[in-house]
Amino acid sequence: MQHDIISIISSVPFLIAVVLSTIAGAFYFWLRGDSFRFTCFAYKRAWVFGNDHRGEFQRLSKESSDSLVGEGGFVQAEHTLCQTFKAVIAGSDSAEVTKEQFERAKNYLKITQQNDIRPPSMIARIGLFVLILAESVGTGYVLAPWMSTEITPSQANLAAGVLALAVAIVLALLTHVTGAEMAKMSAYRKNSGSEGLEKRIDLGDDQEQDTYYIDPNSNAVMQNPSPRRFANRVDDPGSKGMVLLGVSSVIVVAIMVAIFFIRMGGIESQTTRQIVSMEQNGINGGSNPFASAASEPVPPDVASAQQQTRKQVAETLGGDYRTQGMAASLMLALIYLVTQFTAFIVAYKTTFSGQGESAFNFTRNQPSYETFRAKFLLPRISRAESFLTQLRQARRKRNHRCGSGKFEDYLRQGEERERGARVGAIDKAVADISNGKNDDDRSLRWELAVKNYSFSSEEQTLLVEKCEEAAHKRERLLKPRAAAQPVPSAVSVIAPAPAPAMAPASIEVLAGKFLGLSDKVERAAFLQAQERDLGEAGFVDLKAEIKRQKAQADLVRAQDKYADLLAD
After folding, report:
1. Which of 62, 364, 441, 493 might form a disulfide with 436, Cβ 3.0–4.6 angstroms?
2. Are 422 and 563 in the same domain?
């Protein structure tokens, strides 16, 4: 059975399969090194695992329900393709391919202390591969005598080399993954903190929105600590790195020690055989066949002296051979350590935390957006444009309607979406300011919003208008409630000064917040709080607004569902 297995391992077809598998594995990891490159490869190939968009091209080419051409000149299938490649290029579904996003990515790297991290260079990859080959060659040489006595030495060497190469690759991958997890854990432990404002920040979000916060102790706007801002962007990786470090260390040391003692055992056996041979036959390992016919027998004392001399010479040469063999074994162990340590260090020094890798891919350490666009962005836009053209050709063959927009036009629409996001930031600030308990609290919230969002003068004017509108609406809601309350019979002639009017969030914003909640318990608590704060009349308006927004959302979904029937 062992002979059959060794024969299969040492056969030429098996070796070719191993070589091709190694090349395919290297190609796969090369693809995984760049998310855009990996998505392009997997977009038409459903069998490529590890990518969320694998085989998406075939599905979009068959869709027929999205026959309406949208505002930008895209049908739904084309819009999905553009959204996919935009998200891959920008690094996040919520991010746009704009100059503003370029600045956000640079700020993300700065806040998360990852400006100095770079992906592994080609020299590092090649050097690691050479070390893996050296490790596998040395291990194969040690394992070859143990493979089988029923095969030729060349077959044993080939089989041992294949086995050693597989072990070396697995060990390198294990230590590489360990290094990556240790890097994430170390970065989080070093840079994260819990003091300050906790606010989840995505790569596509405004990176300055958590710069300041209102300190509840001093009741003042203060700068958010850097460790808290780091924790707002990077999740805690846990202790996975320490577990992998322990497991990989035990495995590597166990294999290294086993290989060392196997090698030393072989050297000891070979040294013993050589010493015995030299003691019996001399250094040349043989005798003169004609010596008996031409010479007299050697006297016993002379023969004893010769034997003693042979023994001393054999032990001396055997000791030298043993020393050389030990040095070779130590060298092989050193190669093992260097290879695993290199794999660990390469991963440790080049692993990003959070969305750092996506941020780096959208900056590429370039000084300006214009330089990044010329060197890296334009080739990707051309590739995505090619996929869009191919999708339209495939859809036309199926007699499906197609749009006329270009991928770059879709990216330009991101500037409009950026402006819409700024309007959303203003609305969010209005809701936060209006929820202030008193004038001082609202003043603090105003200062916080202006500092965090860096509103321009025009945006601040719009912010003032919306805050005043929210305050007026609040007053209208409070009037029916105040009129319904009876005046006490015994009151002072001089009424106390009224409390400062609270300007809450608008009814539309509150309804939107309610619909944004998914948990029923949270919705019930939200409604209970609003009924207490708004009063009966205000709560009636809120319920009506919620129903209106729900009906509007249902209508939009119905339009999307029956779009092909509603077409002209």
Report:
1. 441
2. no
For 500, the token pair is: 């400062």
My answer on whether 422 and 552 are in the same domain is: no
Separation between Cα atoms, residue 357 and residue 555, nearest integer Å: 40
In a domain, 471, yes or no: yes
pLDDT cut 70: percent of the chain above it: 78
Element containing residue 220 per DSSP (H, E): strand 220-223
Q: Are residues 124 and 7 in the same domain?
A: yes
- What is the residue whose two structure tokens read 């996975």? 240
Quickly count helices (H) and strands (E) in the chain. 21, 2
Q: What contacts 300, CB < 8 A, 6 or more positions away?
A: none
Class of residue 63 by CB neighbours under 10 A (exposed 0-12, middle 13-18, buried 19+): middle
Measured CA to CA, the distance from residue 102 to residue 366 in angstroms comes to 10
Domain boundaries, position 202: 2-32+92-242+356-361
3-state secondary structure of 376: helix
* pTM recorded for the entire structure: 0.71
Q: Indicate if 163 and 24 belong to the same structural domain.
A: yes
- Using DSSP's 3-state secondary structure scheme, residue 237 falls into coil
- Paired residues of 215 in beta bridges: 220
Classify residue 73 by its DSSP letter: S
419 band by pLDDT with thresholds 50, 70 and 90? confident
